[in-house]
């Protein structure tokens, strides 16, 4: 196993998805640490291109990777009535993974403390003074890296035990229509006019790119994913019978599954090894949103290291996780009607406050007022029973790097 002084960094980041690259970017831009990012080589281990979405209010340093943004959002209730909101000063933003990778890779190359390594990380273990990572390079040669800290964003083999384990699973078409069918200024976050499954909920999702191009997705919150053919059938019905798009061409597809669970994700895998991203609990359990949380968490980790702390902060606060656990359980048991619940929130809560709530950025007072807009009795019943429900394991992790 070979190594050299060049194979020693302050930090090694495993995985080059949203979480890994975001943390590497925050550490190098502030000069907090020298960073080596280990990404898998080209081949089946590298994920396909993905779409990440988030909302933000100010121009930021990631704007060069933003494909499109929307200042008007819309939700369609199951009854066909729509809610159109302006969440100003927030805007909803789309980032394609290839654009994000290109941006961060370029910045890492310009940073004296940044390094990108294509290799397969085989083992990670604590050693005196930090951690050791044994890798295999694309040509098969072994390499040993050493660092004071390792941040591992690779998916877990299985999710930790939980009381509720759902999936947000989806398939999307990038479509081009024969005529102009979309309003590029309006994003449809949830369209509950699609047929609802027997368990869980389903909705359409439309992000217009131009008057004749859009990302159209079919999404479910349920316990198991669908087959590709089932997704295709649902998308065909949504595009033809509900949206009335007419003749269209599917230019690209994407598919993924995001864990929606109240599992307790371990934030450490060793004394000097920390987990980040979905594997570290960054995915918001009740919504599946991850990208914005990853940005906040990356900044917080960089600040903690700059100040010399030996631990890193959690990606979400306990209050937010407790509320999410209640909502997941209430959805899973059928005590609340998912389409009515989410539509009611958009109808009754100011949009900017609601989006901050979904991101975990509201105060206790704001959360109390939002809570009064929910079905109080079913939620209270769920809150009372949660402490008595055992956490159980599930073998199907489904925690890939597909993020909202």
Automatic annotation (TrEMBL):
It holds the Pfam family Lycopene_cycl. SUPFAM superfamilies: FAD/NAD(P)-binding domain. InterPro entries: FAD/NAD-bd_sf. This is Lycopene cyclase.
């Amino acid at each position: 196993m070979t190594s050299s002084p060049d194979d020693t960094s302050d930090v090694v980041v495993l995985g080059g998805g949203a979480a890994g690259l975001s943390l590497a970017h925050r550490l190098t831009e502030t000069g907090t640490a020298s960073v080596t990012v280990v990404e898998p080589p080209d081949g089946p281990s590298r994920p396909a291109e993905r779409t990440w979405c988030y909302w933000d209010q100010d121009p930021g340093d990631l704007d060069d990777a933003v494909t499109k943004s929307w200042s008007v959002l819309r939700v369609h209730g199951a009854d066909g009535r729509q809610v159109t909101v302006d969440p100003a000063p927030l805007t909803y933003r789309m980032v394609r993974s290839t654009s994000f990778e290109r941006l961060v890779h370029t910045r890492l190359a310009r940073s004296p403390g940044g390094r990108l390594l294509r290799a397969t990380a085989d083992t990670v273990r604590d050693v005196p003074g930090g951690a050791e990572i044994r890798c295999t390079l694309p040509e098969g040669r072994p390499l040993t890296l050493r660092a004071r800290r390792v941040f591992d964003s690779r998916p877990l083999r299985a999710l930790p035990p939980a009381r509720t384990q759902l999936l947000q699973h989806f398939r999307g078409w990038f479509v081009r229509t024969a005529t102009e069918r979309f309003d590029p200024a309006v994003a449809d976050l949830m369209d509950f006019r699609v047929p609802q499954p027997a368990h869980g909920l389903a909705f359409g999702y439309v992000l217009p790119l131009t008057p004749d191009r859009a990302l159209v997705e079919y999404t479910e919150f349920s316990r198991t994913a669908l087959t590709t053919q089932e997704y295709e059938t649902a998308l065909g019905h949504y595009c033809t019978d509900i949206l009335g798009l007419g003749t269209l061409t599917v230019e690209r597809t994407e598919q993924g599954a995001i864990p929606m669970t109240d599992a307790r994700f371990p934030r450490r895998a060793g004394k000097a090894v920390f987990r980040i991203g979905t594997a570290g609990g960054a995915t918001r359990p009740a919504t599946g949103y991850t990208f914005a949380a990853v940005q906040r968490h990356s900044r917080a980790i960089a600040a903690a290291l700059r100040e010399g702390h030996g631990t890193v902060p959690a990606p979400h606060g306990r209050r937010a996780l407790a509320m999410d656990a209640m909502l997941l359980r209430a959805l899973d048991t059928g005590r609340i009607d998912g389409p009515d619940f989410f539509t009611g929130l958009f109808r009754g809560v100011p949009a900017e406050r609601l989006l901050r709530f979904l991101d975990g950025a509201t105060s206790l007072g704001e959360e109390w007022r939002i809570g009064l807009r929910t079905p109080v009795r079913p939620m209270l019943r769920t809150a009372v029973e949660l402490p008595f429900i055992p956490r159980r394991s599930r073998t199907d992790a489904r925690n890939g790097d597909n993020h909202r």
